[in-house]
């Protein structure tokens, strides 16, 4: 059972990792890479918000941060001790697990099919890389915040 310090560390690590991931997503979009891969728009689409509206944009980003900070950060705090290796390795493992969840649950719900196959292999690989970065930052930040 995670302690209050563990949960706090999970939220700090989840938020930090989500900020880093978001910067990379914005850079990807600014560079015009994989425009069909837009998880923020997908979150808004799942909420049935009109595409391209400010409400959809805000909802998508809030959903993205809530998932990365609260859901994944808290879950990481709960299971990190059961993952093998140094903090960065634990984070990388968790990043792969989060990526699998995205590919098996979120992408089909967003209309992109299992493993986002409708978006193509580059989108699948890009999301894996982004989740590995998220996981590495999550693991290292959690270890510092939890004083491990």
UniProtKB/TrEMBL annotation:
This is DUF2938 domain-containing protein. It comes from Rhizobium mesosinicum. It holds the Pfam family DUF6789. It comes from the Bacteria. Keywords: Membrane, Transmembrane, Transmembrane helix. The chain crosses the membrane at residues 9-27, 58-79, 91-111, 123-143.
């Amino acid at each position: 059972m995670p302690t209050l310090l563990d949960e706090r560390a999970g939220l700090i690590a989840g938020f930090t990792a989500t900020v880093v991931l978001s910067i990379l997503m914005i850079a990807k979009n600014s560079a015009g890479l994989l425009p069909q891969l837009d998880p923020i728009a997908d979150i808004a689409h799942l909420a049935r918000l009109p595409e391209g509206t400010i409400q959809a944009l805000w909802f998508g980003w809030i959903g993205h941060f809530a998932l990365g900070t609260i859901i994944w950060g808290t879950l990481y705090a709960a299971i990190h001790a059961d993952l093998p290796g140094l903090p960065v390795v634990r984070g990388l493992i968790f990043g792969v697990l989060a990526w699998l969840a995205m590919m098996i649950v979120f992408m089909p719900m967003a209309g992109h099919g299992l493993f986002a196959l409708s978006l193509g292999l580059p989108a699948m690989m890009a999301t894996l890389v982004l989740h590995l970065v998220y996981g590495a930052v999550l693991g290292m930040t959690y270890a510092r915040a939890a004083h491990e």
